[in-house]
Specification:
- This protein has about 80 residues and is mainly α.
- The chain is about 55% helix and about 0% strand.
- The protein has 2 helices and no strands.
- It is elongated and about 70 Å long.
- The two termini are about 30 Å apart.
- The relative contact order is 0.23.
Length: about 80
């Protein structure tokens, strides 16, 4: 018997994995933008938790990242 050197078949194509990594990076960026802004003194309230970055921008980036990730999974291959 001759053994063939077979390449392992991946579930997705390279484009799918590229979109997946971009989506994960956008999600991570959204969570990084959402973090921070706390106060060291519990008696002092910090209004920075209600900034545009934490209320609008960061959650929007997370949702866009999830959309990119779902697109990368559902994108059909050309095989």
């Amino acid at each position: 018997m001759k053994e063939k050197n077979q390449q392992p078949e991946f579930l997705f194509e390279k484009v799918n994995y590229t979109f997946l990594l971009i989506g994960v990076a956008v999600i991570a960026l959204g969570f990084i933008l959402m973090s921070g802004g706390g106060s060291d003194d519990p008696k002092v309230f910090n209004d920075a938790v209600f900034s545009f970055r934490r209320i609008r921008l960061a959650p929007t980036l997370v949702l866009i990242g999830f959309g990119i990730t779902i697109y990368s999974i559902l994108k059909t291959s050309k095989k």
